[in-house]
Amino acid sequence: MSCRIGFWVRIVAIILLASAAPAFAQLKPQWMPGQMGLNAGILPSPGFTYVNLDVNYDAGTFNGPNGKATSATGNYNVWAVENLFFFVPDTKFLHGNIGFYIMFPTPATGSLVADINPVGPINLGAAGGGSGLADLWVQPFTVGWHLKRWDLVVGDAFMIPTGRYSPGASDNVGSGYFGNHLQSAATYYITKNKGTSANIFTDWEVHGTRQGTNNTTKSPGQAFTDEWGLGQILPLKKDLSKLLQVGVVGYDQWQITDNGGTIPNPLPLGPPALPAKAIPYYSVHAVGGQLNYILPKKNFSLFFKGYHEYSASFHTIGNTFCFGGAWTLLIPKPKS
Fold first, then answer.
1. How many Å apart are CA 94 and CA 142, to the nearest integer?
2. Strand ranges in 89-239 using DSSP code E only, listed in sequence order
3. Distances in Å between the alpha carbon of 135 and those of 132, 144, 163, 176?
4. Handedness of CA 165, 169, 172, 177 (dihedral sign)
5. pLDDT for residue 296
6. Which pLDDT belongs to residue 14?
7. Which strands make up the sheet holding 210-211, listed edge to edge?
8. Residue 167 to residue 212: CA distance in whole angstroms
Protein backbone atom coordinates (compact mmCIF):
# COMPACT_ATOMS: atom_id res chain seq x y z
CA MET A 1 0.00 0.00 0.00
CA SER A 2 2.81 2.45 0.85
CA CYS A 3 4.33 1.87 -2.61
CA ARG A 4 1.02 2.73 -4.24
CA ILE A 5 0.71 5.91 -2.16
CA GLY A 6 4.24 6.93 -3.11
CA PHE A 7 3.46 6.30 -6.78
CA TRP A 8 0.35 8.48 -6.74
CA VAL A 9 2.11 11.25 -4.82
CA ARG A 10 4.76 11.24 -7.54
CA ILE A 11 2.12 11.44 -10.28
CA VAL A 12 0.28 14.29 -8.55
CA ALA A 13 3.56 16.18 -8.13
CA ILE A 14 4.41 15.83 -11.81
CA ILE A 15 0.93 17.02 -12.82
CA LEU A 16 1.29 19.98 -10.47
CA LEU A 17 4.70 20.76 -11.94
CA ALA A 18 3.47 20.64 -15.53
CA SER A 19 0.30 22.65 -14.97
CA ALA A 20 1.38 25.37 -12.53
CA ALA A 21 3.17 28.30 -14.17
CA PRO A 22 5.48 29.13 -11.24
CA ALA A 23 6.93 25.64 -10.92
CA PHE A 24 10.71 25.86 -11.32
CA ALA A 25 10.44 27.88 -14.51
CA GLN A 26 13.69 28.96 -16.12
CA LEU A 27 12.68 32.17 -17.84
CA LYS A 28 15.51 32.65 -20.32
CA PRO A 29 18.48 30.79 -21.80
CA GLN A 30 22.00 32.26 -21.89
CA TRP A 31 21.64 34.19 -25.16
CA MET A 32 19.82 37.46 -24.53
CA PRO A 33 17.92 38.25 -27.76
CA GLY A 34 17.97 41.72 -29.31
CA GLN A 35 21.74 42.04 -29.64
CA MET A 36 22.03 41.57 -33.41
CA GLY A 37 19.45 42.98 -35.88
CA LEU A 38 20.74 44.92 -38.89
CA ASN A 39 24.13 44.08 -40.45
CA ALA A 40 24.14 40.75 -38.59
CA GLY A 41 26.25 38.95 -41.18
CA ILE A 42 29.09 41.50 -41.40
CA LEU A 43 32.38 40.58 -39.73
CA PRO A 44 34.37 43.68 -38.64
CA SER A 45 37.22 44.87 -40.86
CA PRO A 46 40.72 43.51 -40.10
CA GLY A 47 42.14 45.05 -36.93
CA PHE A 48 40.86 45.56 -33.39
CA THR A 49 37.22 46.43 -32.82
CA TYR A 50 35.62 47.54 -29.56
CA VAL A 51 31.85 47.29 -29.17
CA ASN A 52 29.87 48.65 -26.22
CA LEU A 53 26.38 47.20 -26.07
CA ASP A 54 23.94 48.16 -23.33
CA VAL A 55 20.80 46.05 -23.17
CA ASN A 56 17.73 46.30 -20.95
CA TYR A 57 14.88 43.83 -20.62
CA ASP A 58 11.75 44.75 -18.67
CA ALA A 59 8.64 42.59 -18.17
CA GLY A 60 5.63 42.83 -15.91
CA THR A 61 3.69 39.86 -17.27
CA PHE A 62 4.27 36.10 -17.23
CA ASN A 63 2.50 33.86 -19.72
CA GLY A 64 1.70 30.27 -18.83
CA PRO A 65 2.22 27.22 -21.09
CA ASN A 66 -1.00 28.09 -22.95
CA GLY A 67 0.37 31.51 -23.95
CA LYS A 68 -2.04 33.42 -21.69
CA ALA A 69 -1.10 35.80 -18.88
CA THR A 70 -1.04 34.45 -15.34
CA SER A 71 -1.31 36.22 -12.01
CA ALA A 72 2.03 37.86 -11.21
CA THR A 73 3.39 40.76 -9.18
CA GLY A 74 6.45 42.96 -9.60
CA ASN A 75 8.68 43.52 -12.62
CA TYR A 76 11.50 41.43 -14.03
CA ASN A 77 14.10 44.04 -15.04
CA VAL A 78 17.64 43.27 -16.21
CA TRP A 79 20.45 45.58 -17.36
CA ALA A 80 23.66 44.32 -18.93
CA VAL A 81 26.61 46.44 -20.08
CA GLU A 82 28.51 44.30 -22.56
CA ASN A 83 32.09 45.09 -23.57
CA LEU A 84 33.21 43.16 -26.65
CA PHE A 85 36.76 43.04 -27.99
CA PHE A 86 37.24 41.69 -31.54
CA PHE A 87 40.45 40.86 -33.36
CA VAL A 88 40.32 40.11 -37.08
CA PRO A 89 43.78 39.39 -38.58
CA ASP A 90 44.48 40.30 -42.19
CA THR A 91 44.73 36.67 -43.21
CA LYS A 92 42.44 34.32 -45.13
CA PHE A 93 40.88 31.01 -44.09
CA LEU A 94 38.66 29.09 -46.50
CA HIS A 95 38.61 32.26 -48.64
CA GLY A 96 37.21 34.24 -45.71
CA ASN A 97 38.49 36.25 -42.74
CA ILE A 98 38.93 34.64 -39.34
CA GLY A 99 38.03 36.46 -36.16
CA PHE A 100 38.29 36.07 -32.39
CA TYR A 101 36.47 37.89 -29.64
CA ILE A 102 35.84 38.00 -25.94
CA MET A 103 33.05 39.67 -23.98
CA PHE A 104 34.21 40.78 -20.54
CA PRO A 105 33.59 42.46 -18.21
CA THR A 106 29.78 42.45 -18.32
CA PRO A 107 28.29 44.28 -15.34
CA ALA A 108 24.66 43.24 -14.89
CA THR A 109 21.79 44.07 -12.58
CA GLY A 110 19.72 40.94 -12.37
CA SER A 111 20.27 37.40 -13.55
CA LEU A 112 20.13 36.95 -17.32
CA VAL A 113 19.06 33.35 -16.64
CA ALA A 114 16.34 33.68 -14.01
CA ASP A 115 14.15 31.13 -12.23
CA ILE A 116 10.69 31.78 -10.86
CA ASN A 117 10.15 30.90 -7.21
CA PRO A 118 8.38 27.52 -7.23
CA VAL A 119 6.37 28.23 -4.08
CA GLY A 120 3.55 30.75 -3.78
CA PRO A 121 2.46 33.49 -6.23
CA ILE A 122 4.76 34.56 -9.06
CA ASN A 123 6.98 37.47 -8.03
CA LEU A 124 8.81 38.67 -11.13
CA GLY A 125 10.84 41.14 -9.09
CA ALA A 126 12.35 38.35 -7.00
CA ALA A 127 13.25 36.40 -10.17
CA GLY A 128 15.61 39.14 -11.35
CA GLY A 129 18.55 38.17 -9.14
CA GLY A 130 21.26 40.50 -7.85
CA SER A 131 24.00 42.58 -9.42
CA GLY A 132 27.64 42.04 -10.31
CA LEU A 133 29.68 40.59 -13.16
CA ALA A 134 27.92 38.15 -15.47
CA ASP A 135 29.44 35.09 -17.14
CA LEU A 136 32.45 35.19 -19.47
CA TRP A 137 31.84 34.87 -23.24
CA VAL A 138 34.70 33.55 -25.39
CA GLN A 139 34.43 33.04 -29.15
CA PRO A 140 37.66 31.42 -30.40
CA PHE A 141 36.35 30.54 -33.86
CA THR A 142 34.66 32.88 -36.33
CA VAL A 143 34.87 33.00 -40.13
CA GLY A 144 33.35 35.74 -42.28
CA TRP A 145 32.99 36.04 -46.05
CA HIS A 146 32.47 39.29 -47.98
CA LEU A 147 30.81 38.34 -51.29
CA LYS A 148 29.29 40.43 -54.07
CA ARG A 149 25.76 40.49 -52.66
CA TRP A 150 26.26 38.63 -49.38
CA ASP A 151 28.11 38.88 -46.09
CA LEU A 152 28.23 35.59 -44.18
CA VAL A 153 29.51 34.61 -40.72
CA VAL A 154 29.75 31.30 -38.85
CA GLY A 155 31.22 30.84 -35.39
CA ASP A 156 31.35 28.82 -32.21
CA ALA A 157 31.43 30.35 -28.73
CA PHE A 158 31.46 29.33 -25.08
CA MET A 159 29.67 30.83 -22.11
CA ILE A 160 31.84 30.10 -19.07
CA PRO A 161 29.96 30.35 -15.73
CA THR A 162 32.20 32.85 -13.95
CA GLY A 163 29.30 34.97 -12.64
CA ARG A 164 28.05 34.54 -9.09
CA TYR A 165 25.71 31.56 -8.74
CA SER A 166 24.52 29.66 -5.68
CA PRO A 167 21.62 27.15 -5.79
CA GLY A 168 18.44 28.73 -4.49
CA ALA A 169 20.01 32.18 -3.93
CA SER A 170 18.05 35.34 -4.80
CA ASP A 171 21.10 37.38 -5.85
CA ASN A 172 22.50 35.22 -8.68
CA VAL A 173 24.05 36.97 -11.67
CA GLY A 174 25.66 34.04 -13.49
CA SER A 175 23.88 31.11 -15.13
CA GLY A 176 25.66 28.43 -13.12
CA TYR A 177 26.30 26.21 -16.15
CA PHE A 178 28.58 25.94 -19.18
CA GLY A 179 27.09 26.73 -22.60
CA ASN A 180 28.20 26.07 -26.17
CA HIS A 181 26.81 28.44 -28.81
CA LEU A 182 26.89 27.59 -32.52
CA GLN A 183 26.14 30.76 -34.48
CA SER A 184 25.52 31.79 -38.08
CA ALA A 185 24.50 35.06 -39.73
CA ALA A 186 23.86 36.46 -43.19
CA THR A 187 23.33 39.90 -44.70
CA TYR A 188 21.89 39.92 -48.22
CA TYR A 189 22.08 43.16 -50.23
CA ILE A 190 18.79 43.50 -52.07
CA THR A 191 19.97 46.44 -54.17
CA LYS A 192 23.24 46.70 -56.15
CA ASN A 193 24.41 49.73 -54.17
CA LYS A 194 23.98 47.68 -50.95
CA GLY A 195 21.66 50.32 -49.50
CA THR A 196 18.84 47.86 -48.79
CA SER A 197 19.59 44.67 -46.89
CA ALA A 198 17.90 41.65 -45.35
CA ASN A 199 19.56 40.11 -42.29
CA ILE A 200 19.30 36.89 -40.29
CA PHE A 201 21.21 35.60 -37.25
CA THR A 202 20.89 32.26 -35.43
CA ASP A 203 22.22 30.93 -32.11
CA TRP A 204 21.87 27.29 -31.11
CA GLU A 205 22.94 26.75 -27.51
CA VAL A 206 23.66 23.49 -25.72
CA HIS A 207 23.93 23.54 -21.94
CA GLY A 208 25.90 21.75 -19.27
CA THR A 209 24.68 20.80 -15.79
CA ARG A 210 24.17 23.11 -12.85
CA GLN A 211 23.56 22.42 -9.19
CA GLY A 212 20.11 22.83 -7.67
CA THR A 213 18.84 22.76 -4.12
CA ASN A 214 18.34 19.55 -2.12
CA ASN A 215 21.17 17.72 -3.94
CA THR A 216 19.45 18.01 -7.33
CA THR A 217 21.05 18.81 -10.69
CA LYS A 218 19.55 20.16 -13.88
CA SER A 219 20.71 20.44 -17.48
CA PRO A 220 18.61 23.21 -19.10
CA GLY A 221 17.12 22.19 -22.44
CA GLN A 222 18.79 23.35 -25.63
CA ALA A 223 17.56 26.68 -27.01
CA PHE A 224 17.39 28.19 -30.50
CA THR A 225 17.26 31.92 -31.26
CA ASP A 226 16.84 33.76 -34.53
CA GLU A 227 17.15 37.51 -34.97
CA TRP A 228 16.17 39.21 -38.22
CA GLY A 229 16.09 42.65 -39.79
CA LEU A 230 15.27 44.56 -42.96
CA GLY A 231 17.20 47.83 -43.31
CA GLN A 232 17.66 50.84 -45.56
CA ILE A 233 20.67 53.20 -45.63
CA LEU A 234 20.02 56.92 -46.16
CA PRO A 235 23.01 59.19 -46.96
CA LEU A 236 23.24 62.26 -44.73
CA LYS A 237 26.03 63.76 -46.88
CA LYS A 238 26.60 63.50 -50.64
CA ASP A 239 30.10 62.07 -50.19
CA LEU A 240 28.58 59.21 -48.10
CA SER A 241 30.77 60.10 -45.12
CA LYS A 242 27.70 60.13 -42.86
CA LEU A 243 24.95 57.54 -43.14
CA LEU A 244 21.67 56.84 -41.39
CA GLN A 245 20.33 53.29 -41.41
CA VAL A 246 16.75 52.53 -40.40
CA GLY A 247 14.96 49.22 -40.31
CA VAL A 248 12.49 46.75 -38.87
CA VAL A 249 13.95 44.06 -36.60
CA GLY A 250 12.69 41.15 -34.53
CA TYR A 251 13.60 37.99 -32.68
CA ASP A 252 12.23 34.54 -31.85
CA GLN A 253 13.48 32.19 -29.16
CA TRP A 254 12.47 28.63 -28.30
CA GLN A 255 13.45 25.82 -25.97
CA ILE A 256 13.88 22.84 -28.30
CA THR A 257 14.80 19.86 -26.06
CA ASP A 258 13.76 18.55 -22.65
CA ASN A 259 15.48 19.66 -19.49
CA GLY A 260 17.71 16.95 -18.06
CA GLY A 261 18.37 15.97 -14.48
CA THR A 262 16.11 16.43 -11.50
CA ILE A 263 14.41 19.20 -9.54
CA PRO A 264 13.15 19.38 -5.94
CA ASN A 265 9.69 17.95 -5.29
CA PRO A 266 7.25 20.84 -4.52
CA LEU A 267 5.14 18.50 -2.37
CA PRO A 268 6.05 17.56 1.23
CA LEU A 269 5.49 13.83 0.54
CA GLY A 270 6.92 11.45 -2.02
CA PRO A 271 10.38 11.35 -3.61
CA PRO A 272 12.73 14.26 -2.86
CA ALA A 273 13.35 14.90 -6.57
CA LEU A 274 11.34 14.79 -9.81
CA PRO A 275 12.43 14.62 -13.47
CA ALA A 276 13.20 18.08 -14.85
CA LYS A 277 11.76 17.11 -18.24
CA ALA A 278 8.29 17.69 -16.75
CA ILE A 279 8.85 21.46 -17.00
CA PRO A 280 7.04 22.91 -20.05
CA TYR A 281 9.04 24.43 -22.92
CA TYR A 282 9.31 28.23 -23.21
CA SER A 283 9.16 30.49 -26.28
CA VAL A 284 9.01 34.23 -27.04
CA HIS A 285 8.60 36.41 -30.15
CA ALA A 286 9.25 40.14 -30.64
CA VAL A 287 9.29 42.86 -33.29
CA GLY A 288 10.71 46.38 -33.24
CA GLY A 289 12.87 48.97 -34.95
CA GLN A 290 16.55 49.92 -35.26
CA LEU A 291 18.38 53.16 -36.01
CA ASN A 292 22.12 53.32 -36.87
CA TYR A 293 24.38 56.35 -37.34
CA ILE A 294 27.45 55.33 -39.38
CA LEU A 295 30.72 57.11 -40.17
CA PRO A 296 32.32 54.73 -42.75
CA LYS A 297 35.65 56.57 -43.09
CA LYS A 298 36.18 56.53 -39.35
CA ASN A 299 34.97 52.92 -38.92
CA PHE A 300 32.62 54.16 -36.21
CA SER A 301 28.90 53.64 -35.63
CA LEU A 302 26.18 54.20 -33.03
CA PHE A 303 22.98 52.18 -32.76
CA PHE A 304 19.65 52.02 -30.95
CA LYS A 305 17.09 49.21 -31.02
CA GLY A 306 13.75 48.63 -29.36
CA TYR A 307 11.63 45.46 -29.34
CA HIS A 308 8.13 44.63 -28.12
CA GLU A 309 7.37 41.00 -27.30
CA TYR A 310 3.96 40.20 -28.77
CA SER A 311 3.76 36.49 -27.94
CA ALA A 312 5.24 34.17 -25.31
CA SER A 313 4.64 30.75 -23.77
CA PHE A 314 5.85 29.82 -20.25
CA HIS A 315 7.95 32.98 -20.37
CA THR A 316 7.86 36.62 -19.37
CA ILE A 317 6.53 39.06 -21.97
CA GLY A 318 7.90 42.59 -22.09
CA ASN A 319 10.24 44.96 -23.97
CA THR A 320 13.92 44.96 -24.91
CA PHE A 321 16.02 48.07 -25.54
CA CYS A 322 19.59 48.03 -26.78
CA PHE A 323 22.02 50.85 -27.59
CA GLY A 324 25.75 51.39 -27.96
CA GLY A 325 28.54 51.87 -30.45
CA ALA A 326 31.37 50.17 -32.36
CA TRP A 327 34.81 51.43 -33.35
CA THR A 328 37.35 49.57 -35.47
CA LEU A 329 41.05 50.46 -35.26
CA LEU A 330 42.89 49.38 -38.40
CA ILE A 331 45.87 48.12 -36.39
CA PRO A 332 47.77 46.61 -38.05
CA LYS A 333 46.72 48.22 -41.33
CA PRO A 334 45.45 45.83 -44.00
CA LYS A 335 47.97 44.78 -46.64
CA SER A 336 45.66 45.85 -49.44
1. 12
2. 92-93, 96-103, 107-109, 122-123, 131-133, 136-146, 150-160, 179-189, 196-207, 210-211, 217-219, 223-235
3. 10, 25, 4, 9
4. positive
5. 93
6. 42
7. 210-211, 217-219, 260-264, 273-275
8. 5
Q: What is the pLDDT of residues 23-54, one digit of tens each?
A: 445 668 999 999 999 999 999 989 999 999 99
Q: Is 334 contained in some domain?
A: no
**Cβ contact 53:33 at 8 Å:** no
In-domain check, residue 335: no
Alpha-helix residue ranges (DSSP H) falling in 198-274: none
Q: What is the pLDDT of residue 262?
A: 86
* 162-205 pLDDT, tens digit each: 999 888 787 889 889 999 999 999 999 999 999 999 999 999 99
215-232 pLDDT, tens digit each: 888 899 999 999 999 999
Estimate to the nearest angstrom the gap between the alpha carbon of 206 and the chain centroid. Answer: 13
Q: How far is C-alpha 322 from the chain's CA centre?
A: 12
DSSP assigned state of 216 = -
- How far apart are the C-alpha atoms of 140 and 143, rounded to whole Å? 10
The Cα 66–Cα 280 span in angstroms is 10
pTM for this prediction: 0.89
Per the structure, the count of domains in the chain is: 1
CATH assignment of the domain containing 45: 2.40.128.130
Residue 179, domain extent: 2-329
